[in-house]
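ok so I'm stuck.
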Amino acid sequence: MAPNVTGATGGVTCGPDLCDDFALHVATPAGYGDTHQLTIKVGWQNAAADFDVYLLDPTGAVVASSASSSDPEVIVTAPTSGDFTVRVVPYAPLGESITGTATLTDVPANPAPSTATPPTFSQYGAPSSFARAHDAGEPSIGSSHSTGSTFYQALYDTYKATWDDSVTPSKVTWSDVSAKPANGCATGGSTSLDPIGFTDAKTGRVFESQLAGKISLMCYSDDEGKTWSPSQGGGLNSGVDHQTVGGGRYSPNGVGALPTSTYPNAVYYCSQDIADANCASSHDGGVTFGPAIPMYSLLDCGGLHGHVKVAPNDGTVYVPNKSCGGKQAVAVSEDGGTTWSVRKDPASTAGDSDPSVGVGAKGTVYMGYQAADGTPRVAVSRDKGKTWTDDQNVGASLGVHNTVFPVVVAGDDDRASFAFIGTTTPGNYQDATNFKGVWHLYVSTTYDGGKSWATVDTTPSDPVQRGSICTGGTTCGNDRNLLDFMDATVDRTGRVEVGYADGCTGACTQPGGAQNFDAYATIARQQSGNTLYAAYDALPNLTPTTVSVTRSGGLYATSTTVANTGKASARGVTTRLLVDGVNVATAAPVDVAAGGSTAVAFPGVRLGKGTHTVVVVADPDGRIRESNESDNRRQTQVVR
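replied:
not stuck anymore, here's the structure
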């Protein structure tokens, strides 16, 4: 078959040897689609080849498609009864033949939704006085934990955001600290095939990198963008596309991976080449890099990959990929980038957006991805990607059907957040003519190690995009205004910050407003709720403020007031009475609001002659986590 690339610029045009059409009849009973789905897979032998798959209804309209670089291409859609056409388009056939299947499969079951209270977020747009504030597609974001500053990178621009959290919502001050020849970066603002930014949270070193073929034009700053210094940019024989920069502690297993300067962390530059993807490491803080080492070839995975992340506990390096044998996967190095292995999530399906990983404090890996059916899913690994558990759809509770730009960050080992742009509209989200979905920024958070996730729409009244979003690369039309990805970070108190480009501004935000294809530099910042660091949780603090004993006849009755002086409510608070060290009674559980108090009374007891110690204890079994665990007791003495 001849190559057919017409789908890259719009609707597919077919002709002799340009498409293969296969008839598909689907017959399912009423209600079958509640728990089942139609799965179509088309694969081939040579992973360097590429075919695209479309499902057409009897009118010729596209019901669903899979037009990525995945092998196999997978369509997952509703099992609607009817006669359809499966169209296979040879984008780059390379003489390959194809095999395909159409099956009715079970919809993967999800655990019960999280009972945790989702955090809330506020949105902060960059000043429109910044020359390219509305040209901020595929941004990167990072946080310096030493100063609390946030750095947002898009194209040539580095924006610094500082926060005033003494007020609610927090206030932000923006400044443009972009790298330029005038402040030490000779290549700053000159040319770019792809921008990327990285902030080392521990050291505060800020990197800005502009792709330039098989190398990058990179500079770094140690004074928050006041001055910049040049970097080698990447390793010899680096790739030509999809660059990413990251860093973290050194792996103890690295061969020769020892610091050659006083900089404490390793830095990695990874990128995709024609037939493989490579990663180079720096042992002097990103000033110079060793040679680029292949992570995988096209026989293993599709070329494009996500952002590099480094485990904070042991320096393991992760680079995620959306299609490795039709599965989402991570390329993993446990020896400082010297050798790599590809580890797949067997429960996953390939997608069109790059996946993302976040790594917890003790090494738990959270991988968020766009599944073949468009839904946002996340899986968890506790053995560096060798096995995966808890793979689930985190958008189901809010009815999200389509997702782009997954991004994951983690804090404590059992806490992570997964941000994505999503829409509740089903169908082919890349159909610029017919797709009418409204997109929002969602964030899903786990506080129990990925067993359950609480998902919130952070922009419920302010769409991020209307209509289609193209993830098909440089051949897209206006609907590629957001480009290919977004980013997220965690600040020093565990707040989640999402750096994204807002594609719908001004009149577009109003009901029925027209899409204006903006790309406005915006940060969604966590405003309330528990963060990804438990040490900064808003907690209750239970303390008995009074204790009194009154005599009525031959009985002595004790009463107390239990106050909650903390910043969060406490549910199911019990209070215990002890007399001379003996457990006498436990009051029924009550709820105590933050800043509130409740009266607790105990039944009367008989006391013998002499002096007695009466003690009341709030939360006597330590069931409730508090900001101060030392003030839960109060006592008095009674003389009879």
